[in-house]
Amino acid sequence: MVKKCMGDPSLIVQTKNVGIKENLSCEETPVQILDRQVRKLRTKEDASVKVLWRNQLVEKATWEAEEDMKMRYPHLFESGENAVEGNNFVLSTP
């Protein structure tokens, strides 16, 4: 059986106003290029790279267009850790 309960206003805890943004989304940033592949179509070649995103497992890596990734994230394609040798990327362990 449910009984009515009278609340005690002295037991209410006052909270501070917490600012929440209207846009609750977060942007994923790429960490490393894992692989590269070129698909040969009838009239052109389509280059794709496999991208490892921050806070994701390797199994969740996605294939993205190489041109788009070069424009948005050129630091991933600079010489050094992710240097291109032939058609494969050289992977380094952190």
UniProtKB/TrEMBL annotation:
Residues 32-78 form the Chromo domain. It holds the Pfam family Chromo. This is Chromo domain-containing protein.
